[in-house]
C-alpha cells in the first residue's frame, strides 16, 4: 500500500511516502506535533484524509 503524508511548512509542502497505514499515521501525527499546517494523508486512489479522519481510517482495532 502506498500512502503519501503531506504537511505545509513555511508555505511549502513537505511530503513523505509510507508503505503502511501505521507508518503513515505515525508520520502525520509527528508532522502535526511539529507544527506543520494542513497535514493530511493521501491514499493510492487520491482520496485525502485530514486530521479529524486519521483515527477512523488509520487506527486498527486491537484483536
Describe the structure.
With 63 residues, the protein is an alpha+beta fold. It has one domain. It is 33% helix and 35% strand. It has two helices and four strands, in the order E-E-H-E-E-H. The chain has helices spanning 21-33, 51-58, and strands at residues 3-9, 12-18, 37-42, 48-49. The chain has a four-stranded antiparallel beta sheet with strand order 2-1-3-4. It is globular, with a radius of gyration of 11 Å. The mean pLDDT is 89.
Q: Can you lay out the helices and strands and say which pair or pack?
A:
Layout (H helix, E strand, L loop, with lengths): L2 E7 L2 E7 L2 H13 L3 E6 L5 E2 L1 H8 L5
Antiparallel strand pairs: 1-2, 1-3, 3-4
Unreliable stretches (pLDDT < 50, length at least 5) are none
The strand line-up of the biggest sheet is 2-1-3-4
Number of domains: 1
The assembly state of the depicted protein chains is single chain
Q: Helices and strands, in N-to-C order?
A: EEHEEH
What is the 3D shape?
globular
Q: Mean pLDDT, nearest integer? A: 89
Which structural class do you get from the secondary structure elements? alpha+beta
Spatial gap, N to C terminus? 21 Å
Radius of gyration: 11 Å
Output the number of helix runs: 2
Summarize the biggest pleated sheet: 4 strands, antiparallel
Fraction of residues in H or I helices: 25-40%
Proportion of strand residues = 25-35%
Please tally the β strands and state the result. Answer: 4
Amino acid at each position: 500500500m502506498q500512502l503519501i503524508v503531506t504537511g505545509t511548512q513555511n508555505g511549502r509542502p513537505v511530503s513523505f511516502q509510507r508503505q503502511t497505514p501505521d507508518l503513515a499515521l505515525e508520520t502525520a501525527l509527528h508532522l502535526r506535533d511539529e507544527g506543520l499546517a494542513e497535514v493530511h494523508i493521501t491514499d493510492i486512489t487520491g482520496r485525502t484524509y485530514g486530521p479529524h479522519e486519521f483515527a477512523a481510517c488509520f487506527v486498527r482495532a486491537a484483536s
